Each structure stands twice: as structure tokens, then as C-alpha cells.
Amino acid sequence: LSGDRFQSCLREIRKLADDVEDEKKGIRIRKDDWQKLHVHIASYNNFPTAAGLASWLLALLVLVIFTLAKLMNVKEDCGKLSSIARQGSGSACRSMYGGFVKWTMGKDACGSDSIAVQLASESHWNDLVII
Question: Beta-carbon neighbour count of residue 27 at 10 Å?
């Protein structure tokens, strides 16, 4: 995943950010402050590189988008977040959900309505496993 595509995703999440306030912890971050704050993400992987399963990178991208959305108090649903993940990597939009997921093409020329839709939850097939 290129740095440019990740930065694009980060810009989109920042646009959706909202105020965060926790009086007990003494935290108050205004919506506009998210544009000025730097984010440092450290990730460690113990999965073999070049094992033919590039999906770990997509899952990492989605984890970062989902986590930043929570941190920045983003009120959007997973559908909107999946459109942001898609900007980083097309297949990443499907990783916003567990279970059986469909990537819809959408009709908008800019691709903003190309999102993932969960068809069946991760608990739908309880006995399905990957070995």
C-alpha cells in the first residue's frame, strides 16, 4: 500500500472526525484539531511475507481506518468507511465486515458509492473454518 493512498484515506477520516471530550480523563479535542494532529501507527506482523495471502495488508488498512474512526469520533457507518478503505485498496472495502460480504460497484462516476455490503454475518456459518 503506497503512502499516498494511505494519506488519502487518513484525509477522508479526518474530514468526518467530530469533537471528542472525556471530562474524567481531561481530554478535549475539537473537530478542527484533528487536521493538525499527527498520527503515528506502529504495526508488527508475524505472518510470513510472500506467502500468497496479501490480505493481511488489507486487514491492516481496515483496522487502521476503523480504529481512527473510533478515535476521532466518526459517526459514519461501515458502508461509508468501506468506501474510504476502497481508496487504499479495492478489496479492502470488504474487510470492514466479517462474514459474507459483497463489493457493490455503484453508479457514481467518482466511485463514492462503490461500497461493501454484508450479506451474512460472521456467525452465519458457525462450522466454517480455514485450516
Answer: 9
- Helix, strand, coil content of the chain in percent (nearest 5): 40, 10, 45
Asked if residues 44 and 101 have their Cβ atoms less than 8 Å apart, the reply is no
- Hey, what amino acid is at 25? K
At 107 the three-state DSSP class reads coil
pLDDT for residue 8 is more than 80: yes
The C-alpha atoms of residue 5 and residue 11 are separated, in whole angstroms, by 10
Please report, to the nearest 10 degrees, the dihedral formed by the alpha carbons of residues 126, 52, 65, 85 taken in order.
-100
CA-CA distance, 74 to 92, in Å (whole number)? 19
Environment class of residue 17 by beta-carbon count within 10 Å: exposed (0-12), middle (13-18) or buried (19+)? buried
Among 86, 72, 64, 80, smallest CA distance to 5 is for 86
Q: How far apart are the first and last CA of the chain?
A: 27
Q: What is the mean pLDDT of residues 20-44?
A: 87
